[in-house]
Write a structure and sequence with these properties.
Length: 91
């Protein structure tokens, strides 16, 4: 018994390719959007870390560990670094 191959019309093939490309573009857009937000959060955290070091009321030391905490944690990492500094725990 010989199986027959399914033959798609060129219009159906084009529609299928268009749908798959649309799905791919959607997922690439979502991924790039999340990566940009994470990078922006990290950059903003680092800028505020440097700004807090210049503030007269807080001398938050900029060490490798504080930079890594802010880099990976973003603004929440900066809040954690400030809380640890106020508690007297050095990074």
């Amino acid at each position: 018994m010989v199986q027959e191959a399914i033959v798609l019309s060129p219009l159906l093939k084009g529609a299928l390719v268009l749908i798959l490309v649309g799905i791919l573009v959607y997922f690439v857009y979502k991924t790039v959007k999340k990566v940009v937000l994470v990078l922006l959060n990290s950059f903003l955290g680092l800028v505020l870390l440097i700004a807090l070091n210049f503030a007269p009321f807080m001398k938050l030391p900029i060490t490798l560990w504080s930079v890594l905490l802010v880099l990976f944690g973003g603004l929440l990492g900066l809040v954690a670094a400030v809380i640890l500094h106020l508690l007297g725990i050095s990074l």
